[in-house]
Amino acid sequence: MSVIDEYLSKLPGPQKSSLERIRKIVKITVPDAEEAISYRMPAYKYKKRPLIYLGAFKNHISIYPASGSILKVMGDKLEKFRTSKGTLRFTEEKPIPEAVIREMLLLRVDEITKK
Question: What CATH number should be reported for the domain holding residue 101?
Answer without folding.
Answer: 3.90.1150.200
